[in-house]
From TrEMBL:
Polar residues bias (residue ranges): 18-29
InterPro entries membership: AtsK-like, TauD-like_sf, TauD/TfdA-like
Organism, as annotated: Dentipellis fragilis
Region of interest (Disordered), ranges: 1-38
Protein name in the entry: TauD/TfdA-like domain-containing protein
Length: 364
């Protein structure tokens, strides 16, 4: 097996687990609190697995991006007094002084547009984690119907939440990756196997290490822009298969849920953003398996080049560090990201994702 292929399989496994591998998959289990450890700060969001939970196949739906109707000046989002700090010219902005929970419909439209433009927005000092599940879901649903993850931990009664969890007793890295991987970087775009993959995605932190545990992001627009005109010409029109099968197989193997039968979907390798018009690479190591119409070696060769190009592009990548109250919002259509599990094994990290789905990818 080519090195590229081995890597792809391993990284899919990493994404599959999303920090909850080896959690007991019983529905009611909660971690025991000890004298030193009081347990998760937000036990309501402890990952829940019910093997009997089943979802029907995802139906196609009409989607119009709310960013299209946003005021380009963004008066509701970037009001007076909001502090704006860009991380890099290509991707990433930190905002202080605006509460997502207080944004009007117009403000949320502007958030979608701003996120499309900046790819990643880090909101500080948010009350979002305390506004309750119904309001959290209502806000995320402004951007599109929320994906219900087929295999990962969710919240009992709230399958819209995708839970990322790790503590001293639940360490995916030791269990799965420790022996074979020299680093744990695992670039991916969330659930790209969906026919209508996600767009404006919210991720809020509940417990985080004092140091480390950042998420790294890369701009797939800039990754595309760096290619030569001749190479771009070759990519446009090509399609690749994104597969949910390894994720489902992995979950079955560990006696976890498979709430929906896994899908394999062809997407354009270069897609166009419906609001900004920007072209972006739309392939990722986590889920993209094969270039349609290419022989095996040709496909491996091309994907390996593109995966390497993206992962080596430190000049179009940034880190999003977490503080208590941070909510990170990114546009999954034009970015890839990876966890950085660089903190001690006994440290708790607990976060929740809401993943609105968007249009069928528009070929560039
Ligand atoms: Fe992710």
């Amino acid at each position: 097996m080519a090195p590229g292929l081995t890597e792809t399989v391993t990284q899919t496994t990493d994404d599959v687990t999303n920090g909850v591998s080896k959690l007991k998959l019983s529905s009611e289990q909660k971690p025991a609190a000890t004298t030193e450890d009081k347990g998760p700060s937000y036990p309501f969001y402890y990952p829940y697995f019910d093997k009997e939970e089943k979802f029907p196949p995802t139906e196609l739906f009409e989607h119009t991006d709310v960013g299209l109707r946003a005021d380009p000046k963004k008066p509701h989002l970037l009001a007076e007094g909001v502090k704006v700090k860009n991380f890099s010219p290509y991707i990433g902005t930190e905002l202080r002084g605006v509460q997502i929970s207080q944004l009007t419909k117009e403000g949320l439209d502007e958030l979608a547009l701003f996120t499309a433009e900046r790819k990643l927005v880090v909101f500080r000092d948010q009350d979002f984690k305390d506004i309750g599940p119904d309001r959290q879901i209502e806000i995320a649903r402004h951007f599109g119907p929320i994906q219900r993850h087929p295999t990962s931990g969710n919240v009992k009664g709230y399958p819209e939440f995708h839970v990322v969890y790790r503590d001293a007793n639940h360490n995916r890295f030791k269990e799965y990756l420790g022996g074979d991987r020299a680093n744990h970087t695992s670039w991916h775009s969330d659930v790209s196997y969906e026919k209508q993959p996600p767009s404006t995605t919210l991720f809020f932190i509940l417990d985080q290490p004092e140091l480390g545990g950042d998420t790294i992001f890369a701009s797939q627009v800039e990754a595309y822009n760096r290619l030569s005109p001749e190479f771009k010409k070759r990519l446009e029109g090509l399609r690749a298969v994104h597969s949910a099968v390894p994720q489902a197989e992995f979950s079955r193997k560990r006696d976890g849920p498979v709430r929906r039968e896994p899908v394999e979907t062809e997407h354009p390798i270069v897609r166009q953003h419906p609001v900004t018009g920007e072209k972006a690479l739309y392939i990722n190591q986590g889920f993209t398996k094969h270039v349609v119409g290419f022989k095996v070696e040709e496909s491996e060769y091309l994907l390996k080049f593109l995966f390497d190009h993206i992962s080596k592009g430190a000049d179009f990548q940034v880190r999003a560090p977490y503080e208590p109250g941070t909510v990170v919002v990114w546009d999954n259509r034009v970015t890839v990201h990876s966890a950085t599990p660089d903190y001690a094994n006994d440290v708790r990290r607990h976060a929740v994702r809401l993943t609105p789905q968007a249009e069928v990818p528009i070929p560039a």
